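[job 0412] stage=fold_complex status=start
inputs:
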Amino acid sequence: MIWNETKECMSRDEMETLQGKRLVKIVDRIYHNVEYYRKKMQEVGLEPGDICGLEDLSKLPYTTKEDLRVTYPFGLFAAPQSEIVRIHASSGTTGKPTVVGYTRKDIEIWEECVARSFTMSGVTRNDTVQVAYGYGLFTGGLGAHYGAEYLGARVIPQSTGNTQKLITMMKDFSVTAIACTPSYLLHIAETLEEMGDLDKICLKTAVCGAEPWTEKMRKQIEEKLHIHAFDIYGLSEIMGPGVACDCLYHKGLHVNSDHFLPEIVYTNTLQQVKEGEIGELVFTTLTKEGIPLIRYRTKDLTSISYEPCECGRTTPRLSRFKGRSDDMLIIRGVNVFPSQVEAALLEMAGTTPHYLMIVDRQGSLDSLEVQVEVEERFFSDEIKELEGLRKKISHVLKNAIGLAVAVKLVEPKTIERSMGKAVHVIDKRNLIG
Amino acid sequence: MKQLSVFLENREGRLEDVLEILKNRNINILSLSLADSSEFGVLRMIVSDPEEGKKALKEKEISVRLTDVLVVRVPHCVGGLQRILVPILHEKMNVEYLYALTTTKENAIIVLKTSELEKTRAVLQKENIELISAEMLLDK
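[job 0412] stage=fold_complex status=done
writing structure:
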C-alpha cells in the first residue's frame, strides 16, 4: 500500500516542478524572516528573485551544524514564537544542543511523512505499534508516535529502558509492530530468546532507525524474530524520523522528496556527484515553517538513485549509509563527538589527557569505552584514589554525552599516536557492508 | 622515607619492564608491594636511590611518583604490629596500606602509609616506637 500516491508516485518532471515552486517560496521565506540567512545570501550577492526554480539551487550557500550553533537557540527560526508548537533538541559538537522548532503545519507534515514510512513498511491501522525510542527532546519517540497515531494504528508509548516490561506488554497486548533502534531490537530479541518466549509474540514488523546498521544486522533481526525489518532515516535538523524509509523491496530508502530536496555532493569540492556516486547527503527543506534549512550538510555519506522502484514509488532512493564525513559517532541513538569527551576531560583536569574512545557492539548493544592515560599529575599510589578518579571521569563523561561510559585507566604513551597526532576513536562495530 | 610508586596496567610484562629499567641504573629494590585492581596495579618500592629511580622511569614515560611513607621497626612478638596500629586507630586515622620490608629474628620492619602521615609520626614517637630513616636503612 502507498499512503500518498499522488506525491510518492509523481513523475520526475512533475516532482521537479513542484520542488522548484516550493524552493522559490522557502527561499523567499527565509530571506524575509531569518536575518542570519538574509546576511548569508547578501554576502554572496543573492536576492530571492535570483532563485526561480530548481536550476538555481546551486547558487544557494550551504548550511552546517555550525550555523545552528552560532544562532543558538532560535536564530534560524522562520516563524514567530507564537506559531511554534514544539521544540526538539539534539546534542551538538560543543555541548550546546541543536535546537529545532515546529509549527502546527510542520508537525502535520512530519506525521504524514512517518505515516508514509510506516505504510512503506507494511504497517496499517490494524497494527499495534510499540514505540520503543526514547521519548523527550530526541525526535525518535514523539516522531514515531505521532506518525503511527496519524496512520490510525494503536500506539503504545513504551519508550526505552525496561526491557522486561516491554516484552510483557509485547506479549499481553499482541504487539504487531515496533519502532526502535536496531541495536535495541536485537537486545529485545536476545532477551526473548533467553526467556524462551520467541514464539509467544505476534510481532510482524520492525521500523528501525536513529543509528547506522548493516544489511547483515537487518537480516539477523528478521531471522531471529521471524519479522520484516525496515530502515527509517531522519535527523532532527531536517525533521526527525521519516525523512526517508525503505520499502518491501529493500533497494534503498525512499526520500519524501516533495518535502525534503536531496543532493549528494563531494565533501571536498561541494560539487554534485553523478547519480549513483557516493558523497555527502545534503537536504533543503521545502515546506518547513519553523526552521527551514537550505542545503543542510548532513555529513552522512550515501548515494542516490532516481530509478522508479518496483514498489511503484518514484521518489529517489538513498543507498545504505556508508559512514560520516565528520567524526560524529552514533551510539545507541545518541550523537557523540570526540570533542565532547575532550571538553569534559579538559574541564575536569585542566588540560586534556590523551584519550581513546573505543566503540564496540557487545552482543547487540553498543558500548563506549574511554581509555585515559594516567599522567603523573593524576597518579596517586592509592588504589582507592585511582578508583575514585576512574569513577569521577565516568561520571563527568556520562553527564557530558548522556551515555554510560566504561572508563579504563592506562599507562602514559600507550595510546597509539599516528603521525604525532593521537587517534581518538576506534569503532569496532564494522558497520560497512 | 621516600617510596617509589609506579602506575602499571594489569597486563603481561609490565612489571618486568620496570624491574629492567631499575636494574640498568644499578638501583636496588629493598622491598616492594604490588597492589592490583582488575585493570591496573600500583607498584610500591623502597629502593636504594628513589630520586634516581624516579628519573629513570620517567625517562621511559612511566607514571611514577615519590610518596612519603613511614618505616617502622616492629618487635617480633605476638601482638607486635597491634602495638603500632592501636595508637593510630585511637587518633582516628586510617592505614592506607602497609607491607613488610625485612624480617630478622628479633624485629620486622614495615612500611606504612596513613591518611595523616605527620600526625602518625608524632603519635608513634610519643609511644617510643622506633622510626627508621633512609640513612639507617641504606647503611645497613
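[job 0412] summary: The helical segments of chain B are 14-24, 50-59, 80-90, 117-126, 134-139.
[job 0412] exit 0
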